[in-house]
Amino acid sequence: MMRSKKKLFLIGIKSVLLLAIIITICSNRKQPQQTTGEPTKEYISLNGLITNEDSQHEDLAGLDRKITSYMTKWHLKGASLSIIRNDSLVYAKGYGWAEEEKGIEMQPGHIMRMASVSKLLTAVGIMVLQDRGELSIKDKVFGPDGILNDSLFVATIKDKNYHKITIEHLLRHQGGFYRDPVFSSRDVKHQMGLDHAPTKEDFYRLVLRHRLRHQPGTSHKYSNFGYMLLSEVIEKVSGKPYAQFMKEDVFAPAGCYDMHIAGTYYDDRRENEVRYYTHEGDGKYIEEYTDSGVMVERCYGGNNIPLLSGAGAWCGSTIEVARLVASIDGRPETPDIISLEAVRQMTGYFDKETFSLGWNDTRPGSGWSRSGTLSGTCAYVKYFPDGECWTLITNTSTWKGPRQAKYTDALFRECRKLYSKKLPARNLFEKQ
Fold it and tell me: Which partner from 1, 19, 208, 399 sits 20 to 30 angstroms from 270, CA to CA?
């Protein structure tokens, strides 16, 4: 009897020890990492790995001269160029100054405001949600069946025609809004009798209380306001703040870890961000957007940059813009973060009056293009039919404004004729 109890006791001890071992093994097993949208300890941003030295090539010295000549002609302090071919990064180089006063030369990994190229990013966010089945671009934006049915929108909207606006209408600039006031903060403050600089809610109340100028889908008028609303749609559907969703669910899956909502002032810059410069002449200095009475350089306080959100607030490097494009182009070399059907929807062409989804233009045989301009920056992305994509961002604006894109496009076409065949067969993305 005693021997039997002792045997049972030993069996119990062994069972406890075995259970403890199992618990220890399970607790030490590596848990899957949660995506945060920021670099993990194991990841080093390509912006810190790729430098100008990686693209030094005597056969491409003429290409560098073409870029610097373009910069001289348009009085640009600095610029960054990245070129991908069949989803491989074959060339990435910075030119001129990231910040002339401190003697900091431009590197391809420096990040810059990309202005309305942000709209392309926002459109990708919408397509990610559509691929998940969380929305359709045919969904209504406002009204009882709309996504934005919060009290602010319900109380403000009186014109029932707003209930006809779809996500696709906003993506194609077909909302029919009577104005686009996001670059008129001081005027809006006075018009609405505010004691503060206008918030996004103020802009919503100002625009949405008026009747539509056109029936949704019947006209095309470029609208930053529409893309601000798309940022709200992303927040409402995803349940996350817009920037958080974009970092976690769009950029991180694409391998982009140094994209940020830009700040308004010089002191708001990110660690890796350039200094911006405004072209000389009338308009270089302007009264601060807050209506403080203080005169500021237009690129530092002329507009509330973060308020632009998905319409124009993102900053990043040409390297990471190129990497994102490689993830949404339908090519097999880099896994896409959206479906092939979503790629087709984004790049489908109707006519010269109809905007594509996120892209400016997707005419057959011409390729896909997306431009952006703000005080202190010009950005242009051109994806050619042969799978080559050129991205140029500058830290200086020109007096041409949005029209600068056609000159950059001409530069790209000239350089491709002369140097495309001389670009090296490699993939700098693999430096990660």
Answer: 399
